[in-house]
Amino acid sequence: MLFMLCSAATFSAQAQELYVNTEPASNMPANSMGIRLTNKFFHMQHEGHTGMRFEPELMFGLSKKLMVHTIGYLSNNMQSNIRFEGGSIYAKYRFLSKDDVHTHFRMAAYVKGSAIDNPYYPVIDGGHDHNARPYRNDELDLEGTTSGVSGGIIATQLIHKLAVSGTAGYNRLMHNIRDEMPGFFSRNMLNYSLSAGYLVLPVKYKSYEQTNLNVYVELLGKSNMDAYRPGYYIDVAPAIQFIFNSTTRLDFSYRTQMVGDMARNMDRSFLIRIEHNIFNLRNK
Fold first, then answer.
1. CB 175 within 8 A of CB 145
2. Domains of the chain (ranges plus CATH)?
3. Tens of pLDDT, residues 54-93
């Protein structure tokens, strides 16, 4: 019981680091599991409809330094009906931690691999010329669009109620399970982000049963590295988050492009997520 309370305390104390669109350098408590369901809704500007993607996810705190995510993807972005698209595995290892009173600095390395069974063009597109600029899409991601691997570094600074985090990573994109990537897509991408989270409520902690309210602003960017298909974008994603009983969180986020010249089919999205964490898993 004491271990569970300590784990919940850790979860609440780092609430403003539980970013909605990125991962912090901190990990979930050891010997814990998280169950997460994310729903994303996309404006498909070439197809004239709203795409949806559902992402069921299991997260495991294997130790205080290592955590692993397994994620599935289901959507109607590339076809008229919702279907299973594939999955990915994400692992994060925290290699640096400097703690002080009401402040800490942490760094972590991450790797991710995705295996996706999707066409590269929507089958509901009405016969667009996908290489023509008005209908082109140069953005490929590992969250249901294309297979590939990625890796990078995360650094997070917590100062009292404010947490700021930055990510820099590299994506190597590969062929999908039953569809080869067209030759003109960029296979090498840089991804980068800058996230800030602030704990609004409670003003003063009295119990770990108090509801937390966190607000976030995240800048999310990608750049194609191949000269034959240049382009970049930076999105802004404000978010609001509620944490109940130090175990369950509810996220809402809206994402839209701020600057960039990359041709994209989905440049706006809305996210809603529910997550529940179970501590002291081994004893359970």
1. no
2. 2-278 (2.40.160.40)
3. 999 999 999 999 999 999 999 998 877 899 999 999 999 9
